[in-house]
Design a protein that fits this description.
Elements (H helix, E strand, L loop, with lengths): L8 H14 L15 E7 L2 E9 L4 E3 L2 E2 H4 L3 H13 L6 E8 L3 H19 L4 H6 L30
Parallel strand pairs: 3-5
Antiparallel strand pairs: 1-2, 2-5, 3-4
Amino acid sequence: MARKKIESLEDIKEAVATVSETEVKATRKAVKDKQGRSYATGKRKDAVARVWIMPGHGNITINDRSIDQYFARPVLKMVINQPFVITNRENEFDVVCTVKGGGLSGQAGAIRHGISKALNDYEPELRPTLKSAGLLVRDDRVVERKKYGKAKARRSYQFSKR
């Protein structure tokens, strides 16, 4: 295709129209292993989760235990299931994950992040939904370190006038 020299506003409008008509949207390909699983790593605070998703019946296994055994609080179970609820894929995938570090809340956030990334790899057309919900972005808030001369990270010791 030969390039045309652009000299006027009409030439610019014509060039934009031809580009938008001929522009082919790049499609992402699904990333799956030989067993038909997608893998992703999720992180939150100090927790790191390795997550595999595969077609199934909605079973979630965390460190060789069921989700009900590992997470007693319903809020944490809800956090983990958010990617499936938002994309209308409840009870369609089995999840196997290992998680290390942090506390239960951080681990639940890491698993959610990993599930979102793995869903994105398994079905790339879900990306806009997951991205608009903010599930593909790592939540980078961590505990601030304690500084010397302070009681905690920022709190000073009590001041005495006399």
